[in-house]
Specification:
CATH topology of the largest domain: Alpha-Beta Plaits
Radius of gyration: 29 Å
Strand content: 15-25%
Number of domains: 3
Largest sheet: 9 strands, mixed
Helix content: 40-55%
Distance between the termini: 80 Å
Amino acid sequence: MALLGGLWAYLAGVWWTALPTLVGVALHLNVGAADSYWREHRRREQLRADFARYVPAAVVDALVADGAQPQLHGERRVLTLLFSDLAGFTAASEHLPPEAVAQALNAYFSRMTHTVHQHGGTLDKFIGDAVMAFWNAPLPDTRHADRALACALAMQADMVDLRAQWQGTPFAQVQLRIGLHTGEAAVGHLGSHERFTYTAVGDAVNTAARLEGANKAFGTGILLSGATRDAMEAQQAGGAPEAMLMWLDTVVLAGRSTGVDVYTPCGDTTLASISQTLRGHWQAARWAQALQCCADACAHAAAHAPQWHGQALRWQARVQALADGPAVGATPVFTARALDKT
């Protein structure tokens, strides 16, 4: 009523009697706009604080610009997950004071965090001397598998520099092992009301961690699952992945009942091709053709890639054992290799 009365007075020319009402309305509108602005500002700053520890600054800016809200109870999403661990770090730490261990860890974590962020990954957590990261959350990334592998390769390059810095200390001999796997996980802010973190959970997370440990059995620095290779192939629109990947074996990881194809970057086109052909013969139990692939791999590795000659010999021994294993008259069948928890 006051507003209508003020408006009538103004139209009637008695503007001074309408002035207090109009000023009040203007102040109300300005205060409301300012309150809305500060509410939005606080929401954006809270969103920035929630994610700044996990993702690169550019991703945080995109989240803020999109007005995205963090999932407090987790959402199901396909992720490519990375686990890394320093083999030999614990043993090396026994010979050094705690301050030296902390200094080495800080240098290592700083390099790895920078590399994960540089490749668009989300840094989940540090666990002892291990690093967990993932791609395709909080923002979608259509090339999450490619970026994760590129990050793993860059992390190994970082370790070369770190070992050079650590020359003359027990840490100069530590090796970085990395596992990559792609699969569905629940991702979001998880925890209690007092403390929570942005993280991913699920079987895919466990598989990535198991693959990191499986490097020990193969003498490799990076292992990725067939699911990650398939995701890379799909991201290349049906073509072969950009990185040359060598199939190593089909293994049953600890805690799983089915086999998982495992691959590693090899840098040799011929061996990568032979390994894929071998996989097809191996899993179809065509042992004569598989043994020929093994012979080709041994010859090529001996001449051109000696670092993989041992793997070619392992293939040959595995195929020969599978071909010779069944009783006379029985048909040989493919069986996955079982790996224990070590």
